[in-house]
């Protein structure tokens, strides 16, 4: 239990630092794209904490802007994909059985594609760029949410409170919004935490192979591609720092996602153990 | 293993030839002491019962004797001897040599006590090979079949090749008993061996244990919450409450001469054939105290209908109870300051209920 | 990279009757076929119907309408969509994956030529991942304590690692521009060495078969860094899965029974806990394969490794839809196939699921 608290604490601290970096990135947008050939390939030092790249752009500023891009696009893609997944889950859970069967098959078929490749195919179909890459990633997130939330929605429909709501004649959409959606809240938040890390990884992977954000954009994956060439001639900092930021971000999110179930279980356990103790000290009932 | 005999005490005369003896056994999980000084002596071929409600420490005693406490648990005091040799619970190698050859275990739930992906034969053979590394394959196979036959499993050759899921609950418990007696141990510890079985199978398993005692001369420690089973099967009964043995009584004297209010309460909750149906079963109010926060004095006092103010003041004395039904050499001890009054009341009015709180 | 960190699937149920097993196998097969069919529809819609006119992509923006119409007719693009779809499925199934939009090369031939390099990389990565995961997970579960904590943290970090970046860091630290212990991004062999006689196409295997230890060790040295980069994510995933499984199994009563026979803790762990923990993990083979496929796409180009992942990345840069189409649908087919094989393997390996003919 102590380990879980340390883990959750680490995740929160790391995420706080990343959010600060992302906020700094909003103000550093200008610096991040300012070309200064005279100061190209400067190693990390007091002037440029993370050095400068081949065009003299400040790597720290670019990493900071990259943080705001990654956090915003990661959360955005999961929110949109999760929302769509929720809608599909509700249709599956509350709609007719045949529709549920068809949709589940379709979701399984979409999930048969490795996430990066499916996102890549969708991105290519609509033309490369950060925005189309986001569409591609959303497509991979939808079935993950739809599948898990659907199971929960099905369970919800057999709960007494939903059946009671049905007997008093609530319409199906009303039922879905007022009673089933709140029931799915926990699962939704757990899934969100579990998927943000992957989404950020896939997005940077797309940019790395050239279908996501395009070069002048300070996106981490694109920056690593740019840094590859310089790395072999000794300018390691151009590719290493964005990757480090990417790693820390994904690990922080995963740490948080990983500690949610344990923290929840510990909280439940605490609630449960407090009860029998009270019973034990209660006065014994007198025999008849 | 050293051969030193345990420290002299009032029972040293018997522990000389005991199959298993424990004196002042203490077990703790972290800071919580769950077994608080238990004495237990088992003579060769003897059947001793350990009874109590769940959480009283009886299963912990079984696992502690085997040296198989779950992580976090440790033997913190006491002297244990098996077949005359003192057991050192820090010497894992010596413990491994002892387990299965001198002291073995039959576990609670036969459904989860066998490895689901290994054949019954290989699981019996593992016990044999561990202690007889030079035994030939053919000899191991023959002995496995012989063991299955001995525990009443028909068609042993075919059964040895089967997996646990192909065995019924009763058959699995028989296979587990075969594993336990594979190396002719001195003592078999059976921890709730019948709890997970249906009533008919329970009777068969108890009968099997009984016959093994007769045929092999193995001593049995039967750990159970079922005081009725213990009274039928065992020679002697140890009643545990909150980590201590509160009464040690020969089975013959159990029903008429139980001297501890807790034992009386356990007996009162037992349906007895022939007793009028109007005579309702009694129950024990409350639940056992949490071991982390035991009440001062007698731990049973808060639930006891016989309790007096002084019961909560200090540790209750060990009272030797003279029982007419016992043979010489058998001890009847109860850890209760009113033990003799309790016995007297039961003999006078033949009731199994305690006197009302007054 | 679709790997999420939930632990082993549901415990296998009791073995059903023979008829039930056949019926289950039949419905299972039907489900697999349905999934594949729908996957081909998804791939057709995304890569063939949406991107617009493949003929335009092939002939380029400057071609005359006549040329364009000729190519359209040649590709059957004037036929109704359902006919095009059927042709698409037929061509995929008969390994006619079309011609590169950019240079006219036969996609099937290019893939076939590049497959051994990727296969060799993936096999070694798989080996590293499985061996590493089994060793680390077993020690973590057996010893617990600080080692288990470190293993947990390391596997959590590993799961979040961008492979292409790890590839870069490994080259910088161990490769030619760092400590120089291992070769940098220079393909499969040092340039002055001839590839060994072609038997399997895997240089390490062929090198041994041809009795050329130098080729073997050189091929292995070139493999090491890309294979490690590729192994990190599946390795971390398997470590977490196997540690959790072993911790679960170690709590089972049967382990106490094994100990009560006098078997040492280590022997009981190795023989009983590990065996029971490995069985359910076989069913995650599909996930591991998926991560190896995506990994090869991301890692091969960093190491200049001449595999199909590199073909894909080059195809993407040239907007070559024929290559991407074949690769993407192939990855889905392989994923489904791996899952099916894993299910069958579990059913054969787990006595509770094994079908017994004859005996009741």
UniProtKB/TrEMBL annotation, chain A:
- Report keywords, A-Z: Cell membrane, Membrane, Transmembrane, Transmembrane helix, Transport
Gene Ontology, cellular component aspect: plasma membrane
Q: Where do transmembrane segments lie in this chain?
A: 64-90, 102-122, 196-216, 236-257
Query: How does the record classify its membrane topology?
Result: Multi-pass membrane protein
Pfam entry (one): BPD_transp_1
Q: Which InterPro entries match?
A: BP-dependent_transpt_permease, MetI-like, MetI-like_sf
GO biological process annotation, one example? transmembrane transport
Task: State the source organism's domain of life.
Answer: Bacteria
Q: Where is the ABC transmembrane type-1 domain?
A: 63-257
Q: Where in the cell is it found?
A: Cell membrane
Q: Which family does it belong to?
A: Belongs to the binding-protein-dependent transport system permease family.
Question: Which protein, by its recorded name, is this?
Answer: Peptide/nickel transport system permease protein
Q: What is the lineage of its organism?
A: Bacteria, Bacillati, Actinomycetota, Actinomycetes, Kineosporiales
Automatic annotation (TrEMBL), chain B:
Please state what the protein is called.
Peptide/nickel transport system ATP-binding protein
Its GO biological process annotations read: peptide transport
| Cellular location(s) | Cell membrane
Write down the PROSITE patterns for this protein, in alphabetical order.
ABC_TRANSPORTER_1 (PS00211), ABC_TRANSPORTER_2 (PS50893)
> Main subcellular localization, coarse class?
membrane
Molecular function GO terms recorded:
ATP binding; ATP hydrolysis activity
Membrane topology, as annotated, equals: Peripheral membrane protein
Q: Where in this chain does the record put each ABC transporter domain?
A: 20-267
Write the record's keywords in alphabetical order, separated by commas: ATP-binding, Cell membrane, Membrane, Nucleotide-binding, Transport
Domain of life, per UniProt, equals: Bacteria
Gene3D superfamilies referenced in this protein's UniProt entry, alphabetically: P-loop containing nucleotide triphosphate hydrolases
Q: Which family does it belong to?
A: Belongs to the ABC transporter superfamily.
A GO cellular component entry from the record: plasma membrane
Q: Coiled coil located at which positions?
A: none
Q: Which InterPro entries match?
A: AAA+_ATPase, ABC_Ni/Peptide_Import, ABC_transporter-like_ATP-bd, ABC_transporter-like_CS, Oligopep_ABC_C, P-loop_NTPase
In the record, what lineage is assigned to the organism producing the protein? Answer: Bacteria, Bacillati, Actinomycetota, Actinomycetes, Kineosporiales
TrEMBL record, chain C:
Kindly give the CDD domains that the UniProt entry links to this protein. Answer: TM_PBP2 (cd06261)
Instruction: Write the record's keywords in alphabetical order, separated by commas.
Output: Cell membrane, Membrane, Transmembrane, Transmembrane helix, Transport
Q: Which Pfam families match?
A: BPD_transp_1, BPD_transp_1_N
In what residue span(s) does the ABC transmembrane type-1 domain sit?
115-342
Membrane topology, as annotated, equals: Multi-pass membrane protein
Query: Which InterPro entries does this UniProt record tie to the protein?
Result: BPD_transp_1_N (IPR045621), MetI-like (IPR000515), MetI-like_sf (IPR035906)
Q: Could you state a single Gene Ontology molecular function term?
A: dipeptide transmembrane transporter activity
Task: Identify one Gene Ontology CC term for this UniProt entry.
Answer: plasma membrane
Q: Which family does it belong to?
A: Belongs to the binding-protein-dependent transport system permease family.
Q: What is this protein called?
A: Peptide/nickel transport system permease protein
Q: From which source organism is this entry? A: Quadrisphaera granulorum
């Amino acid at each position: 239990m102590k380990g879980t608290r340390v883990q959750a604490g680490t995740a929160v601290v790391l995420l706080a630092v990343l959010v600060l970096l992302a906020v700094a990135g909003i103000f550093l947008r200008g610096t991040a794209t300012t070309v200064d050939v005279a100061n190209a390939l400067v190693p990390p030092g007091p002037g440029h904490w993370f050095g400068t790249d081949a065009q003299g752009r400040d790597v720290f500023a670019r990493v900071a802007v990259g943080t705001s891009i990654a956090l915003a696009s990661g959360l955005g893609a999961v929110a949109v994909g999760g929302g769509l997944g929720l809608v599909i889950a509700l249709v599956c859970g509350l709609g007719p059985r045949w529709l549920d069967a068809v949709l589940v098959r379709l979701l399984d078929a979409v999930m048969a594609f490795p996430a990066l490749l499916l996102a890549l195919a969708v991105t290519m179909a609509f033309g490369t760029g950060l925005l189309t890459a986001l569409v591609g990633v959303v497509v991979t997130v939808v079935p993950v949410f739809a599948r898990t939330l659907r199971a929960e929605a099905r369970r919800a429909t057999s709960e007494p409170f939903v059946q009671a709501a049905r007997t008093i004649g609530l319409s199906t959409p009303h039922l879905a919004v007022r009673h089933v959606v709140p029931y799915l809240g926990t699962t939704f938040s757990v899934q969100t935490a579990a998927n943000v890390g992957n989404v950020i990884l896939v997005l940077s992977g797309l940019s790395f192979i050239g279908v996501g954000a395009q070069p002048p954009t300070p996106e981490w994956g694109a920056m690593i591609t740019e840094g590859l060439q310089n790395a072999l001639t000794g300018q390691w900092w151009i590719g290493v720092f964005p990757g480090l930021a990417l790693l820390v971000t994904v690990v922080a999110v995963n740490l948080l996602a990983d500690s949610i179930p344990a923290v929840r279980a510990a909280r439940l356990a605490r609630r449960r153990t407090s009860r029998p103790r009270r019973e034990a000290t209660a006065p014994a009932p007198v025999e008849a | 293993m050293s051969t030193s005999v345990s420290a002299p005490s009032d029972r040293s005369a018997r522990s000389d030839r005991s199959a298993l003896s424990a004196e002042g056994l203490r077990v703790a999980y972290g800071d919580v002491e769950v077994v608080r000084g238990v004495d237990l002596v088992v003579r060769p071929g003897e059947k001793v019962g350990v009874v109590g409600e769940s959480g009283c420490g009886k299963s912990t005693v079984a696992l502690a004797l085997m040296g198989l406490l779950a992580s976090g648990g440790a033997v913190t005091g006491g002297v244990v001897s098996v077949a005359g040799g003192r057991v050192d619970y820090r010497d894992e190698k010596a413990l491994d040599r002892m387990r299965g050859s001198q002291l073995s275990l039959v576990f609670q739930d036969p459904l989860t006590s066998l490895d689901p992906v290994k054949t019954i034969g290989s699981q019996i053979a593992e016990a044999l090979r561990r202690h007889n590394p030079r035994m030939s394959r053919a000899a191991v196979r023959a002995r496995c079949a012989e063991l299955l036959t001995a525990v009443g499993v028909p068609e042993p050759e075919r059964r040895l090749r089967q997996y646990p899921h192909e065995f019924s609950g009763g058959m699995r418990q028989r296979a587990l008993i075969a594993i336990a007696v594979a190396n002719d141990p001195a003592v078999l510890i059976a921890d709730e061996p019948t709890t997970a079985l249906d009533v008919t199978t329970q009777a068969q398993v108890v009968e099997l244990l009984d016959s093994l005692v007769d045929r092999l001369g193995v001593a049995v420690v039967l750990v159970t919450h079922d005081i009725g089973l213990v009274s039928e099967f065992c020679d002697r009964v140890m009643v545990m409450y909150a980590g201590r043995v509160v009464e040690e009584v020969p089975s013959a004297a159990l029903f008429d001469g139980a001297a501890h209010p807790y034992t009386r309460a356990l007996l009162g909750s037992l349906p007895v054939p022939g007793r009028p149906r109007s005579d309702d079963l009694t129950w024990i109010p409350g639940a056992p105290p949490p071991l982390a926060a035991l009440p001062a004095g007698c731990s049973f006092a808060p639930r006891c209908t016989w309790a007096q103010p002084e019961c909560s003041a200090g540790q209750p004395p060990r009272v030797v109870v003279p029982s007419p039904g016992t043979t010489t050499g058998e001890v009847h001890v109860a850890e209760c300051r009113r033990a003799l009054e309790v016995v007297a009341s039961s003999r006078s009015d033949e009731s199994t209920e305690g006197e009302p709180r007054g | 990279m679709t790997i999420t960190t939930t632990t082993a699937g549901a415990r296998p149920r009791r073995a059903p009757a023979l008829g039930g097993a056949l019926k289950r196998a039949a419905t299972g097969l039907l489900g697999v076929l349905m999934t594949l069919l729908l996957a081909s529809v998804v791939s057709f819609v995304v890569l063939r119907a949406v991107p617009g006119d493949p003929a335009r992509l092939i002939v380029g923006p400057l071609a005359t309408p006549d040329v364009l119409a000729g190519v359209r007719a040649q590709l059957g693009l004037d036929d109704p969509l359902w006919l095009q779809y059927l042709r698409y499925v037929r061509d995929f199934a008969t390994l006619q994956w079309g011609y590169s939009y950019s240079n006219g090369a036969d996609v099937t031939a290019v893939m076939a030529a590049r497959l051994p390099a990727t296969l060799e990389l993936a096999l070694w990565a798989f080996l590293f991942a499985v061996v590493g995961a089994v060793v680390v997970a077993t020690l973590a579960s057996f010893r617990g304590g600080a080692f288990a904590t470190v293993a947990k943290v390391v596997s959590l970090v590993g799961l979040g690692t961008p492979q292409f970046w790890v590839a870069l860091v490994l080259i910088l630290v161990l490769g030619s521009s760092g400590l120089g212990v291992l070769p940098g991004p220079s393909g499969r062999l040092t340039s002055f060495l001839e590839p060994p006689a072609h038997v399997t196409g895997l240089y390490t295997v062929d090198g041994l078969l041809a009795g050329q230890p130098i080729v073997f060790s050189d091929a292995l040295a070139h493999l090491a860094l890309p294979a490690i980069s590729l192994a990190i994510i599946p390795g971390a995933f398997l470590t977490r899965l196997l540690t959790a499984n072993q911790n679960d199994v170690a709590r089972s009563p049967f382990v106490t029974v094994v100990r009560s026979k006098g078997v040492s803790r280590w022997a009981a762990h190795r023989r009983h806990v590990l065996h029971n923990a490995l069985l359910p993990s076989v069913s995650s083979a599909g996930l591991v394969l998926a991560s190896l496929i995506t990994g090869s796409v991301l890692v091969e180009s960093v190491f200049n490794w001449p595999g199909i992942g590199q073909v894909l990345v080059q195809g993407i840069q040239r907007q070559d839809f024929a290559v991407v189409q074949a690769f993407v649908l192939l990855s889905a087919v392989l994923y489904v196939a791996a899952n099916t094989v894993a299910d069958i393997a579990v059913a054969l390996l787990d006595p509770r699921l094994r079908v017994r003919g004859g005996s009741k």
